[in-house]
């Protein structure tokens, strides 16, 4: 799809910058410009499409939909809605309170909270650009599975008493669900493209710069030895290392791409990224306002185990994804 862009950047590097593509510097410059332009193009397209779909699912409507389901169907629907419903760490508390106030079970609520930050249009777009359609689709499927299974497991522990008492007393009330015309939805999608790219471009550039450095100068043999598929503990270490960090998924994916090209297992790189976005320290701090430490610990353990298993799965099937 982007052969034209690859050839254009190669031409610029070799004929305008006068740097051979066979050098580390030439490879790094190509990586930076090629990835930046490719990702921005795909990002704008995907954000527009998903935002148009997202215009049909306000937080209020999401809550209304989830109220209609029970059992595992509710967990599945919560995870699916987590893909198209806007989420960030700052929205975790109000969403949690709204779900609890609506009588949605804790397990279903966590299915949403687990899936929403892991699977989003930006992450899907960059995965598609960096690793291809098979990896991108499998990433979405495994993200939903982690959310569904994680929510079900959490519900088995019956930790409703681990929600802060004041949450049950809050009455959010009914918010009016406004319908939008087609023109309003298009405008909403266009505004989303502008807003999201405006907010994330710096993370993207930093991530691609780091990825370009790794692509050109990181020692391939060392990375392959300690973080390659042959190391049985690489995925676990990657997840544990990702939990205390806080970074945007858009900044971690280009780094993951560069690491994978240097021999790091794809499952190790993606599980690290999942841990960073799903179990970030700021989100845990915010969730502490509404749930107690035991439930937070269970959330981290269950989600962390799910991410580790997904990491091993990706490493195992990596040869079949090419």
UniProtKB/TrEMBL annotation:
Keywords: Cell membrane, Membrane, Transmembrane, Transmembrane helix. Its main location: membrane. It is found in: Cell membrane. Pfam families: ArsP_1 (PF03773). InterPro entries: DUF318, UPF0718_permease. It comes from the Bacteria. The chain crosses the membrane at residues 31-53, 74-100, 106-129, 136-157, 200-219, 231-251, 263-283, 295-318. It is a multi-pass membrane protein. PANTHER family: PERMEASE RV2963-RELATED (PTHR42775). This is Permease. It comes from Clostridium oceanicum. The lineage of its organism: Bacteria, Bacillati, Bacillota, Clostridia, Eubacteriales.
């Amino acid at each position: 799809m982007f052969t034209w862009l690859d050839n254009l950047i190669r031409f610029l590097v070799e004929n305008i910058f006068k740097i051979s593509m066979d050098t580390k510097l030439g490879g790094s410059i190509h990586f930076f410009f090629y990835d930046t332009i490719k990702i921005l193009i795909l990002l704008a397209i995907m954000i527009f499409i998903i935002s148009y779909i997202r215009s049909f699912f306000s937080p209020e409507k999401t809550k209304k939909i989830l109220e209609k389901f029970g059992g595992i169907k509710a967990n599945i629907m919560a995870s699916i809605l987590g893909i198209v419903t806007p989420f960030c760490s700052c929205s975790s508390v109000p969403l949690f309170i709204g779900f609890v106030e609506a009588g949605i079970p804790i397990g279903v609520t966590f299915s949403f909270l687990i899936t929403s930050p892991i699977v989003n249009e930006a992450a899907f777009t960059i995965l598609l650009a960096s690793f291809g359609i098979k990896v991108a689709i499998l990433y979405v499927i495994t993200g939903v599975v982690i959310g569904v299974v994680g929510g079900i497991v959490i519900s088995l522990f019956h930790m409703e008493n681990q929600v802060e008492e004041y949450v049950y007393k809050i009455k959010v009330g009914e918010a009016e669900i406004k319908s939008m015309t087609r023109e309003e939805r298009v405008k909403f999608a266009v505004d989303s493209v502008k807003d999201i790219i405006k907010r994330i471009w710096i993370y993207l550039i930093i991530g691609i710069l780091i990825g370009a450095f790794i692509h050109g100068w990181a020692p391939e043999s060392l990375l392959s030895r300690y973080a390659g598929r042959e190391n049985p503990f690489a995925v676990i270490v990657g997840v544990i290392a990702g939990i205390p960090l806080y970074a945007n998924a858009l900044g971690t994916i280009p780094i993951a791409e560069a690491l994978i090209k240097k021999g790091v297992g794809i499952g190790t790189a993606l599980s690290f990224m999942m841990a960073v976005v799903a179990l970030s320290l700021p989100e845990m701090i915010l969730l502490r306002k509404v749930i107690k430490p035991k439930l937070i610990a269970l959330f981290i353990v269950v989600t962390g185990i799910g991410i580790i298993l997904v990491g091993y799965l990706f490493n195992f099937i990596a040869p079949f994804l090419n």
